[in-house]
């Protein structure tokens, strides 16, 4: 029970993360920590070719190896109708190959053995005959009429084109361009990158042959949705499937899809009657599981000579890989990319998007991004900077001139989003002040006169998170709503069960703080449970910064529901009518007599011991939240770089990040989220890229080739904060988990281009390796200094 002076640590408190107690003592439970009696191990044979017909598979030698229990092929899976599975975008994906391989690393066969070493040895004994076909490694080649068709399995699919999608108003946009004083254009490529969580994907599938009960321990960001998909795909009764996602070592979108390994391990456990464990190694994770980005984009902006933006036209070609598996709301073919108008009051816009199959791994996951918003934010912010220079304006001034004004909210964008609230001028002015923008520009002039390359890059972003309202947002038909269930025990301690699944975001702490704010029970007295479909309410999971806007809202609402009942009990204890009871910070008191008090703990005890006649005993509730709108966090980032003209090496001198995610539940956790996101944004800008050679071999299959920033390279971040609450969210919070990765790559690239603009460099595609920067300097005729 709180003492008179003890403050309830609800919203705005820097409560230390409750989950860290077990993590820092090495007591977390990850998938590979799970060992069951009689458990077998599975290893997967993967294709060395990107595109090849399979003419034969000989498994006899592998079968004969002592310790091998089963060798599973596509043919065996087909006998059980499990050779193909649905993707999150409603396409189909091969579980194990039956006809031809379509990307390097694709799953060809699996071995189940008594131990992992035997399983891996047996893979080498499987003989596969491949007949190579021309691999398609760019979406441009994929779209050519004479390109070999990758999806020969799909009836009526006679090209590699997957979809064409449009948003906005074409006629009005054409008119705006026809009437424009100026048009600025930019072609840019946002490269394929990978979420690369520290823990790779894996599962332990345990199907009890006697009861038919399937318990699947899985690294899943969306356990409930996965259970439903499993029920539909495998035809298992849903109540007999229990998905348990224990501690997860980072997800970042990588752990949303269903991967073939999960399906094969589950089928194997079903057929063999023993538990089966499958854990990817690092290379398997990088070459075969959900990539992100891979968008080739063209943007054009129409402007008046005075810098007023009058229209935006965007077209893009998406490299979707061999199976269209984007994790996104089904109504939107390129996720929420149409937020591409960003923070600007653009009267009209038109976006067209096409997707193509290529011989690469499927993915398109929401990698620390709300469904393709990162690509959109990058394009608009690169375009705006180039537009400013073309017009001879300062990039900050051009932005400030065109930002949506504070009093224009709620604001309907040219592509149909209703932005809930914002103060873009406030965030940018704070960033400019923190970085001393005016002084920096003077310094830059002096540095330029000395032949030094100093750049200042800005990026203002508007994120769109919290999918979403049931009218427009579903995945495979499942509406994107989430639940929370709250039970107050007789002693006033509580258990909160949530539908979302933390992977490092600290939900066990922040969600307890939401209840603390609403009920006045301290966060340490509230246990937060998640990741077990038998014991938590239904919901679509954690990705795209949707936990706080959706399940966080459900948590506030269920706490209010419980509080209403507690108030009735308090009135009974205080012997007054309910209308005479007031609540504040865990205490019910009588209006006008503040010393007559019943605590929430007293009310909880009475709910089981001394409740009014006719009242249902107990104190608990459940709430499913269907958000009325998305939330729109925003911010401005400013980066200062120095570029060495002789080597192309660029160093970040300053990085200022001002974020607005509405009301912050736990400022310390929010800052951690922003630091992580900025680090990932820096990595993409500077070094991360999954690429392929002309034969479709994946270059970037390990951490020597796929570079992630470490503490050594990562710059220091200076954070700032503005607070513009979401008007429709019960606690005024907007999601934040993805914002920094969405907003920051453009700021880094803009800074380098700003440094090189006077030399004639107009664009360099990410990642900005020193070699690429040096080449761009040379192509522009070298710097004065060299
Ligand atoms: O869906 P995900 O948890 O990745 O993203 P989020 O909802 O943006 O939340 C990330 C973390 O920041 C969670 O622990 C949130 O509770 C916390 N957060 C916060 O403390 N205040 C906010 N306004 C937004 C998020």
Provide a descriptive summary of the structure in words.
The chain has 786 residues and is of the alpha+beta class. Helices cover 28% and strands 25% of the residues. It contains 19 helices and 34 strands. The strands form 10 sheets. Strands 3-7-1-14-11-12-13 form a 7-stranded mixed sheet. A 5-stranded mixed sheet has the order 9-17-16-15-10. Strand 27 (587-590) and strand 28 (593-599) form a beta hairpin. Helix 15 (547-574) crosses helix 16. The mean pLDDT is 96. Bound molecules: cytidine-5'-diphosphate.
Summary of the model, kept short:
It contains 19 helices and 34 strands.
Helix-strand blueprint:
Blueprint: H1 20-24, E1 40-46, E2 52-58, H2 60-64, E3 68-73, H3 74-79, E4 84-86, E5 92-94, E6 100-101, E7 107-113, H4 116-123, E8 127-132, H5 139-142, E9 161-168, H6 170-178, E10 182-193, E11 202-207, E12 214-218, H7 223-234, E13 241-244, H8 260-272, E14 276-279, H9 282-288, E15 292-303, E16 309-319, E17 349-356, H10 373-391, H11 395-402, E18 411-412, E19 418-419, H12 424-435, H13 437-449, E20 453-462, E21 474-475, E22 478-479, E23 482-488, E24 494-498, H14 507-519, E25 526-529, H15 547-574, E26 581-584, E27 587-590, E28 593-599, H16 600-609, E29 620-625, E30 634-643, E31 650-660, H17 667-686, E32 691-692, E33 698-699, E34 718-721, H18 739-756, H19 770-779
Parallel strand pairs: 1-14, 12-13, 16-17, 24-25, 31-34
Antiparallel strand pairs: 1-7, 2-6, 2-8, 3-7, 4-5, 9-17, 10-15, 11-12, 11-14, 15-16, 18-19, 20-30, 21-22, 23-24, 23-29, 26-27, 27-28, 30-31, 32-33
Helix pairs in contact: 10-11, 10-18, 14-15, 15-16, 17-18
